[in-house]
Amino acid sequence: MIEHSSATLEKASAVLGATSLLVFVASMLVIDRPAPGWLAMTSPGSPEAADAETRRARGAEAGGHDDVFAFFVGNPIYYRSTLALQRPGGTDLELKGIGWDGDALYFPIDGGVRWMRWYGQAGFMLEHLHNKAIARLGRGAHGRRLRYPTVEEVAASGTLKGEPAPARIRLADLFDRLEFTHGHNMLFGAGLLKLASPLAMVRPYLGLGGGVAFPHTEVWFKGEAKGERTYEYQYAGPAAQGVAGLELKVGRASYFLEYKFSYAWISGALTGTRSWADWDVFGDLWRQFRRWQRGEKPKHGAFQTTLGAHQILLGIGYRRQAPARR
Q: What does pTM read for this prediction?
């Protein structure tokens, strides 16, 4: 437990260090270099900055809007969850209290992209959130070795291969992989609301929304052949999120620090199918749709779980104001 806590603190420190460096470098590129005409800068808190922000707010109130195009990085901290597993041959199993890790700095890095549109104090956003979620089998993403490996043993109930399941199961005795490492991907829409602030350049905001989860499902069972491994993107169920953040606006640049809570209801199929390529999202989802259309049941069974996570995000974006139509 102590080793695992040390590993978690080490990863959290690495994430905070990397994201702080990202924002610092971006700030130097945007602020300290001579600004082109489209990126006119003013000092936060200056009269010019306050006037510019007031003009933008008045433009939005008159029917215009602000767009923000941004990317961000973060590190999810997951709740434990129960995984239900159904397989041919008499397996109908519940594994209770599975822990998940993010492995945020291992490629592909955890984070996302978003588009926000503000009409005065209210707005909305579309966002793709890419996290990783890895069960504790003693390995990190894609089976890589960890400095502080943890192999969990969890409570179990139901049947395993036609026999009553043992009271506890060591996860590494059942799985070679149980993870979503080319993405516990979620696509969200959310409504946003700006809150009052004494500083013109700093604005707190809140958001609430929903969407869909389409994780890259990687489930490999111990001792089974490669052709029985599931390794593909799947539409897996609905997802929801809540956000609370602070935005710093400097000219056309937008910097934000944000807390996010996300929750996804995952229902995965054990197809024994491999992605043509690790980025073949649309191809995998199309094949899944065709299986549904033909009424095909998953060849190797199915599983269900939930993934709820807290995380702190750091991001940077470009702001563009559209004038009101006349």
A: 0.78
